[in-house]
Amino acid sequence: MRIKKALTIAGSDSGGGAGIQADLKTFQELGVFGMSALTAVTAQNTLGVQAVFPMTAEAVKRQIQSVGDDMGADAVKTGMLFNAEIIQTVAAQIKLYNWRSVVVDPVMIAKGGASLLQEEAISALKSDLLPVALVVTPNIPEAEVLTQLSIQTADDKKQAARKLAELGTKYVLIKGGHDEHTDEAVDLLYDGSEFHFFSSKRIQTKHTHGTGCTFSAAIAAGLAQGGSVYDAVSEAKRFIQAAVEDQLLIGGGHGPTNHWAYGRRKGDDAQ
Ligand SMILES: Nc1ncnc2c1ncn2[C@@H]1O[C@H](COP(=O)(O)OP(=O)(O)O)[C@@H](O)[C@H]1O
Ligand SMILES: Cc1ncc(COP(=O)(O)OP(=O)(O)O)c(N)n1
């Protein structure tokens, strides 16, 4: 049996809801062997981020090389990268190993407001990382920062997606989790010529910690298994919907999503 493998390059969330922990749980649930290169350690729980300890760029590079030189990766996703030096190192390694199925989740700010990316690193994200991405998955505030556009309407999302595609990424997926005035959670995928909307019922809950990490990891898992971007996003949308719907109710703040829910539902459907 040749199992497919995915590498996450991201930060650690001690609370287990976001970051590397969410990514590895998602890979596991979707039948993909998960590997990791840690960019930062955060002391974090459902109440917020209490501290951030970045790794050196050299430490990040060495982890990626250990995976790349021996095991290889069928897909890669990036999450919290924290500073420009780490971003430049990660982009260079992606090029070196000629990894093509690359999902970039441009993580900037955690739900509680803590900064997970230094402001001066945004230009490196645009100039170095987005050109090597197959898919970039900003939420609305991240898309606004990256494009300097205000995003209120579906047309604004389309304009922002076009502008992001000009930076070199092949597919742009603008997530609608922050669009809280609608009853739906609508994500927009742009493939360079056409727009596709992925819509689901918005769940009224505060337990959405790690939705972005989980969603982008699920897309990477689909790509690792050889699926198209459209199919990977479709399945990731079903995965995140189930994970938000079947609440775990852990912690006193924004609790983590349920990474088991999708697999359990599929198991139930098969019976
Ligand atoms: N309350 C919700 N109900 C259903 N889906 C949601 C909800 N919140 C977020 N999502 C979905 O989770 C995914 C991640 O979106 P988002 O929360 O915008 O990302 P981030 O965590 O990066 O801010 C998207 O597919 C979005 O539509
Ligand atoms: C270590 C780490 N990485 C990323 C995030 C942000 O995760 P995200 O999925 O965007 O979820 P919220 O922070 O919005 O809940 C994080 N918090 N920690």
TrEMBL record:
Alphabetical list of InterPro entries matching this protein: HMP/HMP-P_kinase_dom (IPR004399), PM/HMP-P_kinase-1 (IPR013749), Ribokinase-like (IPR029056)
Q: What keywords is this UniProt entry annotated with?
A: ATP-binding, Kinase, Nucleotide-binding, Thiamine biosynthesis, Transferase
Catalyses: 4-amino-5-hydroxymethyl-2-methylpyrimidine + ATP = 4-amino-2-methyl-5-(phosphooxymethyl)pyrimidine + ADP + H(+); 4-amino-2-methyl-5-(phosphooxymethyl)pyrimidine + ATP = 4-amino-2-methyl-5-(diphosphooxymethyl)pyrimidine + ADP
Q: State any single GO MF term.
A: hydroxymethylpyrimidine kinase activity
Its protein name is Hydroxymethylpyrimidine/phosphomethylpyrimidine kinase
GO CC annotations on file: cytosol
Q: Which protein family is it in?
A: Belongs to the ThiD family.
Q: Identify the pathway.
A: Cofactor biosynthesis; thiamine diphosphate biosynthesis; 4-amino-2-methyl-5-diphosphomethylpyrimidine from 5-amino-1-(5-phospho-D-ribosyl)imidazole: step 2/3; Cofactor biosynthesis; thiamine diphosphate biosynthesis; 4-amino-2-methyl-5-diphosphomethylpyrimidine from 5-amino-1-(5-phospho-D-ribosyl)imidazole: step 3/3
Gene symbol? thiD
Q: What EC identifiers does the entry list?
A: 2.7.1.49, 2.7.4.7
Domain of life from the UniProt record: Bacteria
Under the heading Gene3D superfamilies, the entry gives: 3.40.1190.20
Gene Ontology BP, a term:
thiamine biosynthetic process
- Ranges of residues in domain Pyridoxamine kinase/Phosphomethylpyrimidine kinase: 13-258
